């Protein structure tokens, strides 16, 4: 069972992550609190009542591949159609083609709940929305006319085709081919792997966005173009025509997200699939980045959704399961394990991770929205940089938290957690992909260190750290005794973050790139833990909106956080600034010989 | 592929964990270095050549349950019989019944390799050996005569039947019944769950050790007796008689260790299974603890085995897989990912965990051996207490490390890590049970805090901490420049461990048991991390035995450890000493209402 945490989500959007800034903009002038609440409530209801019960079915039945076709798990086609009939697919898409034009923050909140319902389900539309964004921004009007409305409604789904066997993280190595045809279209050929929802029977057509190289393209990533390749060609009247020269050659047998078909796609076996250029030739990577950046946030939200769902299930189990006698309990009866201090610790470890993931994801969504509504070039630049800075934090830390929370959830279940019938293990299996896809968390860390810290000549991160200090000052100035020493703990953590940041930036400035890269992963965790801690404290210091129990709970979580996750920070700083010499001295190739 | 790390194992046994103390004893006077080496080499060969290749078969095929019978995975019966023909089952068992009487340290070393080969395989004999230990120590001569030789040779396997649906960690709640029969035997009835290797076709007979209550037994754990219940009754001449009144009602569908059948066992459906009392009536728990303590170390070794195997596979993948260009590499070719600093960090994170797990497990085995060979009552007490202190550390930390290392291994594989064909995911699935069974790691932490810290009125832990300080002094006195500041880092960690220990013991002394319990889990990790760090430093400071490359590698690992895992210690101390108030204030039951 899943209960959508509407109150926490709404509070985090409004009081912690700045939804008010978005509501105050001209573009979202219609988005009153009532509408926000109505949307959250209805999304929460759908996630809890419709999606959540189908999660286990999707896991056990998975998808079935035969003769190039993929059959969705039982009930999943109906689920998907109910979902798109609710208008959920086009939440952020342009109203010009039937979308609702809502801000990313609301979409992030809904996406959390879809993922709590079922990560394998929420994943498909995430890809479609990525395709919508790429088309909105880069496609010709003709392509938009033909494809956009149906992708926005969800009548058709979209995919992203980047990976090839030899080209995963390194798109330089990409070899899929595109040749110009006489009619202005292209003939696409090549094999793509790990294509999420590459083939299925949820929709009548599937719109593949495919990276490929023209024959005369420069080497490397500057020679990659993006093409739209529909499964079925579309006639002038919008009806479906012939099957394109693309087929699914198989689906992977995966650790988790069994209901999400991960396909090997073969393009051009019979001479070349018909594709249409999106944007300009050889500029495909820029288009793809449009999809990828938001997709990274969307994957972060998967970690959030799993952490919350796993927490709820573990809590429910811990309240029912009785073993031993907790301190303070008397009489012959066994205590619910939720009363044992160690189980309380574990439950809090899960819940603090869920809430920390939430503030990170919503803060990133806020920055993306701000970059969209910015009215000056300066503001646009600032918020684009902020979104850029927060994206690796919002992708990596929440996905790590998702795995950690799910694993703690298994532990709380004891032996039952290892039995698949319980469902606890599914969260761990599903969650494990999120730190990997859309750029491994190691690549997020490299992105943070090599591309984001240097933004505006290092001034952006400096300003960001200054803002955190300001929030901490505000928490301290609130003088609330119930917060304890929270501001002191945060000030220490921020100092560690400042020192680690200076160390990494100095290494880069001095050309010691390998030193900076060796510390990238602990640096990312350190930065994300500190930022999340500051936001949790901001929420704890906020007024109670008349709901004291909820506020007490927020304070308890924020205080727990300062004694647990935040306490990793000092060690991470020591690691960033101390370990590069030994790490770089490690020579794995010498071991192999 | 698995390559047994014989040199590291031998070095750790001898130079770090004190195998020489055991070899110097009268009981093991025959155990020269040559024999040790021969045993390790042959065990390593069997693990690498015979067991390791069957691991994936066991995972994919699992066991098949039908009509109360369990069929092992293809090839597993032959594998088991080859293994027992090598005499491996009786390594530590008494020579009186065909065992080899070798010390636990050697058995631990071999068990690491069996588990690296296949955790699901190594698990079965672990249970048999537990049964052997219980019989050796507590059974009547008649029972020994009938059962011991065949359990020691491995011709029959043994099981442990504790858990019932309502009684997992809490044996007070156990309800299986035993009634006295006229012939001196007993009639056993009740249902047991999660019985590892409870039914299978590897051996012709299976010897169940079953906890049950007599009708007139006192309530609680003082009313539990231990019975031997053979699957087939044994005739006076040793041949097999009638099928006993015990059957397997099903096997669990688990996250991992698919080749290990986890059975629901039903005793006495047809009037009562014939059982024979082991030890005294109502004293079954003491007998069971004999099995459980060594089983806890054996489970810790599972974590070690998985960490080492997962590391080797990830290393091998990272050397083959090419993506991007590592710092310092030039030319158009992609670099093996093993050259990227972040991957080096991840490989080291796995390897430091494997080596830290190894020193913890072997040190615990050493203490057990010392308690067996002790010649004075005082020594016996000291080493029994030391084994007691180290057992929760050797169970919990290595099993957590196993999960952590396997998860990092999945990450190093990128998208391929999530695909079951790669095998990386199996290590994670298999490893995940080890922190749960034989007493969850939370229960280990409670055991450490409530039973082990108070040993000898708190003097034992005090002496232990003093010994650690002595080893660190030795490392510092070695004055080896290549060790860097290792002794300083360790001294800081030890101070944190001392402070955390004092905090917990004070809480207990003042009757604030809930405070102590709230910090038990981070305290265990803190203690284990510090102890392992000290032992790794001891190894790093030791001479190179003429093999410089191996010594350089040990120093690199120990130095990496001091900047990474050891740096968790300060945060853990802050957690232990700071978080209990907020953790105990958490009221999960209020959330449910």
From TrEMBL, chains A, B:
Keywords in alphabetical order: FAD, Flavoprotein, Oxidoreductase
Cofactors required: FAD
Keyword field contains Oxidoreductase: yes
This protein's record includes keyword Transcription: no
Domain Acyl-CoA dehydrogenase/oxidase N-terminal: 37-155
Parts of the chain that traverse the membrane: none
Top-level taxon of origin: Bacteria
Domain (Acyl-CoA oxidase/dehydrogenase middle): residue spans on this chain: 160-268
Catalytic activity: 3-(methylsulfanyl)propanoyl-CoA + oxidized [electron-transfer flavoprotein] + H(+) = 3-(methylsulfanyl)acryloyl-CoA + reduced [electron-transfer flavoprotein]
Entry's EC annotation: 1.3.99.41
Domain annotation Acetyl-CoA dehydrogenase-like C-terminal: ranges: 467-586
InterPro entries listed in its UniProt record: Acyl-CoA_dh-like_C_dom, Acyl-CoA_Oxase/DH_mid-dom, Acyl-CoA_Oxase/DH_mid-dom_sf, AcylCo_DH-like_C, AcylCo_DH/oxidase_C, AcylCoA_DH/ox_N, AcylCoA_DH/ox_N_sf, AcylCoA_DH/oxidase_NM_dom_sf
Entry similarity comment: Belongs to the acyl-CoA dehydrogenase family.
Protein name according to UniProt: 3-methylmercaptopropionyl-CoA dehydrogenase
Organism: Roseibium suaedae
Classification lineage: Bacteria, Pseudomonadati, Pseudomonadota, Alphaproteobacteria, Hyphomicrobiales
